[in-house]
Amino acid sequence: MIADPPVLTIRREFDRVGPQQLARFIGAETVHIVDAMDGHGALDYRIKPLDRSSASFAGPALTCHAGADDNLAILAAFAIARPGDVIVAASDGFTGSAVVGDLFARYARNCGVTAIVTDGLARDTVGIVATGLPVFVGGVTPGSSARSGPGTVGLPVVIGRVSVSPGDLIVGDCDGVVVVPRTDVDIVATRLDSVRSAESSFEADVANGLRVPDFIQSLLQSDRVRYLD
Q1: How far are the Cα atoms of 99, 152, 169, 217 from residue 71, in angstroms, in the given order?
Q2: Helices (H), the chain
Q3: Which DSSP category does 96 fall into?
Q4: DSSP string computed for 128-161
Q5: CA distances (Å), 21 to each of 38, 62, 163, in order?
Q6: Could you say which of 77, 79, 143, 215 would form a disulfide bridge with 64 (CB–CB 3.0 to 4.6 Å)?
Q7: Which residue, among 74, 46, 50, has the nearest Cα to 129 in the 3D structure?
């Protein structure tokens, strides 16, 4: 007789992005981080905050794969969550039921979780918003999901067409969510400083009346552009 597979597979110990590394991304804009990563790292555009007034966060990923129409793995993730973790729950983008609700947001708050991010749907939105917890989802429905598994916690997942490993840096704001691989955090942080500096310079030029960026003017005056009139 073939043995029944485990309902949950859990990895409890993994390296997380460090506090000093994390500090360099507190308050960072996701658009700047994506620019510092050469356009990569952003989750699918449909994954957005339920409450734009409670959308800014940064923390290490505690990954879980709940699968379609199931939230058992998310509940199990609370049991091993550390203060500051971001629950990243892959639900295969299933849109037939919600995988998080107001009780989940309260569990997360009690565990010291920084945010919940899922490609699935949410319900009980009024209650979720009341907690003040940043919760990013693919949409909203009153439907409820099962709690049967199978699922994983603490293993790599794919969410919003981006691979996420446990311990990676997750940053969110009103524009969405971006993933910074843990091994790239220091490099991206350095690039982020340069992006911020350049953006500040551009904003100053625009405030002073700039109409067309210098690099566009140079391109228009080069032999790389052919004018027909």
Answers
A1: 5, 11, 23, 53
A2: 19-23, 30-36, 72-80, 102-111, 125-131, 185-207, 214-220
A3: S
A4: HHHHT--EEESEE-S-B-B----EEESS-EEETT
A5: 20, 17, 20
A6: 77
A7: 50
Q: Is residue 37 part of a domain?
A: yes
**pLDDT of the residue at 185:** 97
Q: How far apart, in whole angstroms, are the C-alpha atoms of residue 137 and residue 40?
A: 20
Peptide bond before 150: cis, by omega within 30 degrees of 0? yes
- At residue 1, does pLDDT exceed 60? no
Query: 22 in a domain, yes or no?
Result: yes
Question: How far is the C-alpha of 45 from the C-alpha of 60, rounded, in Å?
Answer: 21
Residue 38 lies in a domain: yes
Question: CA 63 to CA 159: how far, in whole Å?
Answer: 10
Predicted local confidence at residue 121, as pLDDT? 98
Tell me the C-alpha distance between 150 and 20, whole Å. 36
Residues paired with 116 in a beta bridge: 87, 135
Q: How confident is the model at residue 204 (pLDDT cuts 50, 70, 90)?
A: low
Q: What is the CATH number of the domain that holds 20?
A: 3.50.30.40
Band of pLDDT at residue 199, cut at 50, 70 and 90: confident
Segments forming the whole domain that contains residue 113: 8-196
**CB-CB contact of 41 with 185 (8 Å):** no
